[in-house]
Design goal:
By secondary structure, this protein is an alpha/beta fold. The chain has 2 domains: 135 residues, Nucleotidyltransferase, domain 5 (2-Layer Sandwich), CATH 3.30.420.40; 181 residues, 2-Layer Sandwich (Nucleotidyltransferase, domain 5). The chain contains 11 helices and 12 strands. A hairpin with a 5-residue loop joins strand 2 and strand 3. It is globular. The protein binds zinc ion (ZN).
């Protein structure tokens, strides 16, 4: 996804840099005081190389983007950095991210701050994306939100009144590991515990649940796909559902049921203004028939199980910033860190 950019003339200072580190690529954007992008690029993480090399490349890219945007270094107030966990946010360390094997126990926040010469605000990538949606995305009209990211895994972020809930041990907002099934047949989560939301609502889980049904002999147009390609993708399941395949639609709607259980727990714990569903697995979004059915089913589950007042007032919708949410949110967290704390 390419960011929509504004010109220097349209922009409102001060400015912030957002850096969103993923397993495959690092996305960097220069963002103005209203959350709009002036310049943006992405480049390969090359996660097998060491972290110092990535910091060198990141610093060069930031300088290049400043030139593109026509900004002086002095106009940048701060840098926001989002990385995958596990991490130690208070000490500014990235610990041992599974997707970036070369980065281990590295003081990434302070090294980047030294290299760029600006204060760096460090956050979990999912929390940064949640802040992006909160600041200028789907959640922009709400004082608090929970974002649930449905991708290879299930991630999440919780933002309450400009504050990202990181927790005492950098494990706040681990929404994928909310238990939604304590039954004897609960599915195993990649973290090693049974019954967690991620074991039902990630793309990996949706594919696994569909594949099991096919192997058990369920009639479906996906039998031919599985026979030919040996494995399925989330997109194929979504397309099959759109073409009227009963099994594919059933798996997708069951996913919505499990997701609703997790959302109800979050609503009764936090009572947020909005629930924002992000990540690649959005079944085409709310403009698409399958995406709309998925969203409607989530809302039905919430209506059935949440306090009526909360179910009536909560806004539940798909995210709107796509792959830009992470760096925009990281820049937003850097901006928030510059503000005097509210008493
Ligand atoms: Zn888990």
């Amino acid at each position: 996804m390419s960011a929509q950019t504004i010109t220097r003339e349209e922009a409102v200072g001060p400015y912030f840099v957002g850096v969103d580190v993923g397993g495959t690529s690092i996305k960097i954007g220069i963002v103005d005081d209203l959350g709009r992008t002036l310049a943006y690029t992405s480049f390969p993480t090359e996660g097998e190389k060491d972290t110092a090399d990535a910091i060198r490349r990141t610093t060069q890219v930031i300088h290049g983007l400043l030139a593109t945007a026509g900004l002086e270094r002095s106009e940048i107030l701060g840098v926001g950095l989002g990385t995958p966990g596990p991490m130690d946010i208070k000490r500014g360390f990235i610990l041992d991210p599974t997707n970036i094997p070369g980065w281990r126990h590295y003081p990434i926040r302070d090294r980047l701050a030294e290299a760029v010469g600006k204060p760096v605000t460090y956050a979990n990538d999912a929390n940064a994306a949640a802040y992006g949606e909160y600041w200028v995305g789907t959640g922009r009209n709400y004082p608090s939100l929970v974002m649930i990211t449905l991708g290879t895994g299930v991630g999440g972020g919780i933002i309450i009144g400009d504050l990202s809930v990181e927790g005492e041990n950098s494990h706040g907002s681990e929404i994928g590991h909310i238990a939604v099934d304590y039954g004897p047949d609960a599915r195993m989560c990649p973290c090693g515990q049974p019954g967690h939301l991620e074991a039902y609502a990630s793309a990996t889980a949706v594919i696994a649940r569909t594949t099991e049904q096919l192997q058990a002999g369920r009639a479906s147009s996906l039998q031919a796909v599985l026979a030919q390609e040996q494995k399925l993708t989330g997109l194929q399941i979504s397309q099959a559902a759109e073409a009227g395949d009963d099994l594919a639609l059933e798996v997708i709607l069951t996913t919505a049921d499990y997701l609703a259980r997790g959302i109800v727990i979050l609503m009764h714990t936090i009572d947020p203004g909005a629930i924002v569903l992000g990540g690649a697995m959005n079944f085409g979004g709310s403009d698409h028939p399958v995406g709309k059915q998925f969203l409607d089913r989530v809302k039905q589950g919430v209506d059935r199980h949440a306090f009526p007042l909360l179910a009536q007032r909560i806004a539940i919708d798909f995210a709107s910033l796509g792959g830009d949410a992470g760096y925009i949110g990281a820049a937003g967290l850097a901006r928030a860190a510059q503000k005097p704390p509210t008493p």
